[in-house]
Amino acid sequence: MLKKHIVLVLLVIIFSSMFIYYFSKVPELNNAKINLLDKILQDPNEFVLRYVQIPLDYSYGSNSIPLVISALITNGNLVELGMGSFSTPLLHKISSDYNRQLVSIDTNQDWINRFIIYNTTKNHRLYFYHDFNNFQQKFDTKFSKLGLVLVDHIYAGLRPIHAKYFANNTEIVIVHDAEKRSDTFYLYEKNNNIRAFFKYACKFSLYQNFEKTSYISTLILSNFIDLTILERIFKSVKSDFGHVACDLSF
Ligand SMILES: *[C@@H]1O[C@H](CO)[C@@H](O)[C@H](O)[C@H]1NC(C)=O
Ligand SMILES: *[C@@H]1O[C@H](CO)[C@@H](O)[C@H](O)[C@H]1NC(C)=O
Fold first, then answer.
1. Which residues touch 249 (CB under 8 Å, ≥6 apart)?
2. What ligand has the least distance to the C-alpha of 123?
3. Do 142 and 166 form a contact (C-beta atoms < 8 A)?
4. pLDDT higher than threshold 60 for residue 29
5. Is the pLDDT at 199 greater than 80, yes or no?
6. Pick from 33, 49, 208, 234: most CB atoms within 10 A?
């Protein structure tokens, strides 16, 4: 009889603590994210300037604004396929500020060497790959659910394939150099129809000169987050020569 009571009491304790844990933990996380989103909406330039150096770089760094905002609105770990003088320090700082794991991968030993000191920090790991052969095997063993993947490596033809690979397990996938005139090279749309693999898409296009005669686009894709939020944020962000917030026709 006594045994039965003890078991019952234990069960009540276990279930009530699970209940308390669930209802205290989950809304807390969500609230933190909602608060952050509110702050970004109120003052998006402050968040951009925290991670992007000015003057803004209008070529290799043309994905910096969408990268900062997209990383901040996701929760999971960060992956960078192809390192760069703008994206790597930017993502490193976000991973450190928000205590999120970041993995940077490159097939060029010079890029790895340039940033190797990051590999000594708590949240950031660098990996050198000889190539992306058997990439599925390489990624499968390393990644489960992710927050953000940036696909920005030099294997143009593999970029759309890698972006699709992460479609179902990553909150946001970003591909760089997605402007229409470069599609003959990267084949995001031609041959691969990348847009069809994601529920939501936003293409951010940054003008490179005052005359607005050229621009570079960054395509942001998601099956998990309604990206109209990005349009709102990008519309209130400032850039020197202007940009188009979210328009797939660019
Ligand atoms: C970074 O550190 C991890 C383990 O901490 C190691 O496996 C990896 O090889 C290191 N990366 C490089 C490029 O040395
Ligand atoms: C993602 O999941 C959907 C639905 O389960 C499936 O149809 C699609 O093929 C998957 N995409 C990829 C790239 O794995």
1. 180
2. 1
3. no
4. no
5. yes
6. 234
Q: Which of 92, 126, 138 to mutate to test the pocket of ligand 1 (most atoms within 8 A of CB)?
A: 126
Domains of the chain: residue spans and CATH: 43-245 (3.40.50.150)
Q: Helix, strand or coil for residue 135? A: helix
Of the pLDDT bands very low, low, confident and very high (cuts 50, 70, 90), residue 14 is confident
The amino acid that residue 42 corresponds to is Q
DSSP 3-state assignment of 97?
Answer: helix
Whose structure tokens read 């050229």?
214
Look at residues 77, 104, 75, 72 and name the one whose alpha carbon lies nearest to residue 89.
104
- Give me the chain's average pLDDT, please: 91
Instruction: Decide: 160 and 187 in contact? Cβ < 8 Å.
Output: yes
| Closest ligand relative to 112 C-alpha | 1
**Cα 46–chain centre separation:** 19
Q: What is the DSSP letter of 125?
A: E
Question: How open is the CA angle 184-187-193, to the nearest 5 degrees?
Answer: 130
What sections of 59-107 are H helices per DSSP?
Answer: 64-73, 87-97
Task: Assign 213 a pLDDT band (cuts: 50, 70, 90).
Answer: very high
Token pair of 39, please?
A: 């702050």
- Cβ proximity of 126 and 95 under 8 Å: no
Q: Which atom of ligand 2 lies at the shortest distance from residue 164's CA? A: 13
